[in-house]
Amino acid sequence: MDRLRELRLPFLFDLCQWQRPVPAAEARERLKAEHPLSNAEAAERLVTLGYNRLPEAAASGPLARPGRQLKNFLIYVLMTAVVITGALGHWVDAGVILAVVVIQTLVGFLQEGRAEQALSAIRHMLAPKARVVRNDG
């Protein structure tokens, strides 16, 4: 630990300090808590503040993901190009540009779905329980 101070890497020193178990009195001192919560105080905080968890994201419908993919400035530019090239009679060019829009939307849709699955998996991996010290701890 002293070597980390010598190297002037205080952030690493702080990380190492927080990774070791500390006595309850030292933890209360670091948290600036005078005493542990009593059961009554914990119940009161539960009523006033609620459970200690992040709010769940609102579930979106099946058409929301493709809709979000189409809300993109580049897509607007490409769709404008499709309309203009179609109006000029260049149907092959318009079809190619439209194919690019469809492929980009499909790829974005699939990537967003995989990202949602990964976040869900991470959420389930988090520890659902914690040990707390009450009253005389």
Describe the overall structure.
It is a single chain. It is built from seven helices and no strands. The chain has helices spanning 2-6, 10-18, 24-30, 39-49, 64-70, 73-87, 91-125. It is rod-shaped.
What are the SSEs and their pairings?
Layout lengths: L1 H5 L3 H9 L5 H7 L8 H11 L14 H7 L2 H15 L3 H35 L12
Helix pairs in contact: 5-7, 6-7
Task: Briefly characterize the structure.
The protein has 137 residues and is mainly α. It is 65% helix and 0% strand.
Task: Give short descriptive properties of this protein.
137 residues; mainly alpha
**Average of pLDDT:** 79
Which oligomeric state applies? single chain
- H and E string: HHHHHHH
Into which percentage range does the β-strand content fall? Answer: under 5%
Query: N- to C-terminal separation?
Result: 28 Å
What's the story with the biggest beta sheet? none
Q: Which overall shape is indicated by the principal axes computed on the Cα atoms?
A: rod-shaped
Number of helices: 7
